[in-house]
């Protein structure tokens, strides 16, 4: 690992720590460093302890895990499809999750059922795209991409139908979920554990990912099992996306832009890009969620809107310089 890449990862780690401090300190009730220390290490309970440990810490964990999952999935999808515009949502995974979650919201069931339905919808979409793209033989990246786009369009039609038929009282909650909602995550632990285990599961194949990104002929000539690797990437990216969408709704832009930003910063090797994407994606969503609940507190904004406002000008600025 070069000194430049190592320094970039250190900067990402420092930015993540800064984002965590802001996430725990800012909100309707602002806390200083002393208040945070008392919340974590104080012997008596109090308002600061309840705010930090019961509200901000779980929400921050959900936000960071969501960003890490989406950014990692985006980096994997761009390798799988060899398409710079590929992102975690391009194959319709988020559409299936959205249909499941919105159907539960329409029926007025609890948040636990919404999480189950969202994950089930994502898994159904994954199986549907994989089955249709495979057909009678093996699939190609182009066929997989086209199948995913068509399936995503079908989910989009179903989402429009559900929104059109939903009662007015539940429509705002549905729209908020579609734009990214971290206001009440049921539990962040599933996403956190999957982000850690998932990153550890894909890193051993980082060298093969580097070779596959140069083309299938090159990878095959170097002894890479292309068929296994493509299935591995697809399943891993789909699981990451499903967990992220189930946790926070549809938070766009993260999986598309974060890998590109890291490449513009000089991190191109997948051995550094994957952990860097997890750090940068988690930091971006965590910082965006802090702004979403702090800018017009006590009202909250959809976190997906903030990620777009932050990421678009930053990406254009870096693209213009490099």
Describe the structure in your own words.
This protein has 322 residues and is mainly alpha-helical. The chain has a single domain (3-321), classed as ABC transporter involved in vitamin B12 uptake, BtuC, CATH 1.10.3470.10. The chain has 14 helices and no strands. The two termini are 22 Å apart. The mean pLDDT is 87.
In the CATH scheme, the class would be: Mainly Alpha
**How is the CATH topology named?**
ABC transporter involved in vitamin B12 uptake, BtuC
- Assign the CATH superfamily: ABC transporter involved in vitamin B12 uptake, BtuC
Assembly classification: single chain
Shape: globular
**Share of helical residues:** over 70%
The value of Rg in angstroms is: 20 Å
Query: Please, what is the average pLDDT?
Result: 87
- In terms of per-residue confidence, which ranges show pLDDT below 50 for 5 or more consecutive residues? none
Write the H/E string, N to C: HHHHHHHHHHHHHH
Q: What is the number of domains?
A: 1
Annotation, overall tally of beta strands: 0
Biggest β-sheet description? none
User: First CA to last CA: what distance?
Assistant: 22 Å
CATH architecture descriptor text: Orthogonal Bundle
Helices, by number, come to 14
| Estimated share of beta-strand residues | under 5%
> Structural class of the secondary elements?
mainly alpha
For this entry, give a set of tags:
mainly alpha, 14 helices, ABC transporter involved in vitamin B12 uptake, BtuC
Q: Could you write a compact summary of the structure shown?
A:
The chain is mainly alpha-helical and 322 residues long. The chain has helices spanning 3-25, 33-41, 47-81, 93-107, 111-134, 141-165, 168-178, 189-202, 206-212, 216-221, 226-248, 254-264, 270-294, 303-321. It has one domain: ABC transporter involved in vitamin B12 uptake, BtuC (Orthogonal Bundle), CATH 1.10.3470.
């Amino acid at each position: 690992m070069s000194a430049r890449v190592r320094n970039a990862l250190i900067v990402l780690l420092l930015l993540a720590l800064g984002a965590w401090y802001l996430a725990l300190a800012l909100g309707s009730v602002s806390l200083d460093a002393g208040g945070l220390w008392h919340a974590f290490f104080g012997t008596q309970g109090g308002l600061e302890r309840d705010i930090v440990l019961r509200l901000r810490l779980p929400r921050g964990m959900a936000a960071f895990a969501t960003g890490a999952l989406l950014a990692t999935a985006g980096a994997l999808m761009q390798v799988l499809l060899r398409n710079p515009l590929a992102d975690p949502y391009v194959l319709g995974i988020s559409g299936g999750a959205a249909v499941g979650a919105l159907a539960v919201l329409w029926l007025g069931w609890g948040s636990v059922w919404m999480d189950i339905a969202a994950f089930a919808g994502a898994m159904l979409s994954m199986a549907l795209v994989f089955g249709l793209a495979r057909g009678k033989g093996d699939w190609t990246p182009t066929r997989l991409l086209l199948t995913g786009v068509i399936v995503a369009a079908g989910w989009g039609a179903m989402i429009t139908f559900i929104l059109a038929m939903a009662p007015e009282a539940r429509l705002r909650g549905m729209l908020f979920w579609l734009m990214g909602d971290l206001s009440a995550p049921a539990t962040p632990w599933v996403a956190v554990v999957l982000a850690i285990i998932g990153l550890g599961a894909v890193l051993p194949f980082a060298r093969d990912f580097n070779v596959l990104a140069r083309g299938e002929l090159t990878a095959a000539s170097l002894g890479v099992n292309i068929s296994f690797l493509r299935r591995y990437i697809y399943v891993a990216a789909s699981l990451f996306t499903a967990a992220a969408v189930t946790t926070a709704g549809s938070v766009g832009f993260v999986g598309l832009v974060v890998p590109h930003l890291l490449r513009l910063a000089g991190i191109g090797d997948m051995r550094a890009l994957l952990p860097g994407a997890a750090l940068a994606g988690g930091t971006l969503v965590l910082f965006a969620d802090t702004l979403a609940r702090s800018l017009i507190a006590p009202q909250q904004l959809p976190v997906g809107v903030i990620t777009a406002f932050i990421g678009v000008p930053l990406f254009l600025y870096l693209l213009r310089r490099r």
